[in-house]
Specification:
The protein is α/β, with parallel strands linked by helices. The chain has two domains: 120 residues, NAD(P)-binding Rossmann-like Domain (Rossmann fold, 3-Layer(aba) Sandwich); 171 residues, Dihydrodipicolinate Reductase, domain 2. The chain contains ten helices and 14 strands. The strands form two sheets. Strands 8-9-10-7-11-12-13-14 form an eight-stranded mixed sheet. Helix 1 crosses helix 9 and helix 8 packs across helix 10. 47% of the residues are buried.
Length: 331
């Protein structure tokens, strides 16, 4: 299959390397509005560089398109690719508004030539998460009573001012939640596996007042009925600490920190299982699931089967994200 990437920033390299590791796949073209970035990536991977992504789609016969651009461009680019009948794999977040969500759903439904759409919630493919998900489904820990998620990272002024789009409601769509901690929110939703009933959130800007329009901190409370979840995320810390998800279950307390799982049983015994050691692409806090997620999408395309992280599978995560900003007064 011939693949192409739009957006040649840091995350694009992870996508490119994942493509190159698949037999029968070739990165044929890349596009970026900054010519030097497109040319550099094209040289490294033997692709054709473009500065106009639509021109790339017109000239190249592309089977799969990877969207690695600023947030506000994800939905319109995906909709156009699906209209052209091109399988599309997009980075998070899939949307930044309810309007975009409706547009993306419609584009997927009306896609030509059976084009598939996948979203890169790669942490679902982390071996630590996969193991906990399997144990939960097998009833190892009994019923989930509650969950909490914690993300404390560091994003300084330059991260926003040098990007041209981060830190703005119009182009980023939000801050600490939609950019840095949406994966943690997604994993809470994925592991609990029930439709959320309510979401209430509040936001703050503690350390970048006057520099960014969006939040550097968010706290949220989610109800699934009997199960409750608490969530906290900030980019105002001094370092990028591994995100933490903890599940309080009937028979155990289960904590996931990147590739480590700690299980505190009701019998008083505690054990930690470390899933480190496998091949890792990109920064450690991005998780270890990018390659597996991308390869799984290609496999689903080749076999004509639904991808496990399509719009249907992430609709509750998107609802939580949009509801958080709505209740916090950001929309």
């Amino acid at each position: 299959m011939k693949s192409a990437i739009i957006g040649c920033g840091s995350i694009a390299a992870v996508h490119a390397k994942s493509i190159m590791k698949m037999e029968g796949c070739k990165l044929a073209a890349v596009a970026d509005v900054i010519p030097e970035r497109a040319e550099s990536m094209a040289r490294e991977y033997g692709a054709v560089p473009y500065t106009d992504w639509k021109q790339m789609l017109e000239k190249e016969e592309i089977d799969v398109l990877h969207i690695c651009t600023p947030h506000y461009l994800h939905t319109p680019m995906a909709a156009e690719a699906l209209r052209r009948g091109i399988h599309t794999f997009m980075e998070k977040p899939p949307v930044i508004s309810q309007e975009q969500w409706e547009t993306l759903q419609r584009a997927e439904k009306e896609a030509n030539n059976g084009a598939a759409l996948g979203v890169c919630f790669q942490n679902r493919f982390n071996p630590s998460v996969a193991a906990v998900k399997e144990w939960l489904e097998n009833g190892e820990f009994g019923r989930i009573l509650g969950a909490r998620g914690l993300v404390t990272w560091c994003r300084k002024e330059r991260y926003y001012t040098e990007s041209g789009w981060r830190g703005t409601v119009e182009k980023e769509g939000g801050g600490a939640l939609i950019n840095q901690s949406i994966h943690t929110l997604d994993l809470i939703q994925y592991l609990i596996g029930k439709t959320p009933l309510t979401m209430e959130a509040s936001t703050s800007n503690h350390h970048l007042k006057g520099i960014i329009e969006v939040e550097d901190t968010m706290e949220a409370y989610i109800s699934y009925g009997e199960e409750k979840a608490c969530f906290y995320a900030t980019t105002g810390y001094v370092a990028d600490v591994p995100p933490m998800i903890e599940l309080e279950c009937e028979k155990a307390r289960v904590r996931i920190e990147e590739l480590k799982v700690t299980i505190a049983g009701s019998d008083g015994e505690t054990k930690t299982i470390d899933y480190s050691g496998r091949e890792h692409l990109g920064k450690s806090y991005w998780g270890a699931g990018h390659m597996d997620c991308i390869h799984s999408f290609y496999e689903s395309v080749e076999q004509g089967k639904p991808f496990s992280v399509g719009l249907e599978q992430i609709k509750d995560t998107v609802w939580l994200m949009l509801k958080a900003y709505e209740t916090a007064g950001n929309v």
